[in-house]
Amino acid sequence: MSNRRVSLRWVAEQAGVSPATVSRVSRGSAQVSPELRDRVLRVIEESGYRPNHLGRALAEVRHGALGLVFPGLSGPYFTELLQGFEAEALETGDSVLLLASHYRADTDAKVIDLAGRVDGMAIHAGTVSDAVVEEVSQQVRVVMMCGTANRWNASVSTDNTTSGALTRHLLVEHGYRRLAFVGHPEGSPDVTSRWDAFLAAHHEVGVAPPVQPVRVGLQQSDGVIAAERILAEGTLPDAVVCANDETALGLMLCVLGRGLRVPDDLAVTGFDDMNMAAMVRPGLTTVRQPVRELATTTARLLTDPDTRPAGDLVLPTELVLRGSCGCRPGG
Asked: Ranges for the HTH lacI-type domain (predicted)?
């Protein structure tokens, strides 16, 4: 069937319903009986179109909502992202429909369903498959957070290579030779980039890196687990580079509780510069990333009608030196 024949009115006529009913079905509205919903969806399927393709024909229908897809909501990082995204959405009068996947098997289907109820969608990298990103991008504007751009959508991320500058600081300025990396590179595109920068810095300086990272998650409790693994090995590294501040703080609390000194017995660093990083003693050496700006920039790209986002937008990050790596406070 020719694409030109499919329109809101055409689908409504074939299904024997009003155009308003077709619009409600396309948005996933609950104000449609199961019988009418099935009838409309049957026409869409028999015409050779999926609901997301119909959504393009219904582009004039504005939902007044943006979708935000996260792997989870725990921790200050995602809290800051959500607050920044919502603040920008409020400026344009849009509501935010949040989907936290928690890596469930039905995530792809839920994201496709969400696309029928929003005008644009921000998807955190690593949450859904590339095939679903492509499919959703054919229906609504999509911006990836902390991922890479492709021919379907743009991306907004922060510069993870500063993890390499932090690693070089530990190797060169402090003369540490045995470093450990705490994080799961296969679990997050951000952690992958930070691990790669960590390895590259070792090669640049001419120091052999660890063969493997200490693979744990990104929560404070995971930092405790990492500390216990490191302590169990017997020989301590000189310094630990953690993939984020939460794991770094959990690791610090654990080693300090065992009577060790930071940084005298073990230097510790993080990534994010969350509020607690400056409050602990010693202060946590870390990489400051503009988390709120990451979120507001993503929302702005989704709502600006005069902007067609393309390519990768990478926001700068900054090395923050504090006492946990061996630097003097304020140095």
From this structure: 6-60
Closest CA to 223 of 239, 245, 238: 245
CA distance 9 to 181: 58
Together in a domain, 13 and 99: no
Nearest to 116 by CA among 54, 178, 175: 54
CB atoms within 10 A of CB 195: 22
Q: How far is CA 245 from CA 19, 81, 128, 216, in A?
A: 52, 15, 25, 13
CA distances from 317 to 1, 49, 232, 294 (A): 51, 44, 34, 11
With respect to residue 101, please indicate whether it lies within any of the assigned structural domains. yes
CATH of residue 139's domain is 3.40.50.2300
Q: Is residue 323 part of a domain?
A: no
Which residue type sits at 201?
A: A
- Whole-model pTM: value is 0.77
Check if the beta carbon of residue 154 is closer than 8 Å to that of residue 309.
Answer: yes
CA atoms within 13 A on the CB side of 64: 3
| Residues 115-134: tens digit of each pLDDT | 989 999 999 988 888 888 88
Residues 220 and 255 in one domain: yes
Looking only at the bridges linking them, the beta strands covering 318-320 and 286-288 are antiparallel
* pLDDT 10s digits, 163-193: 999 999 999 999 999 999 999 998 788 999 9
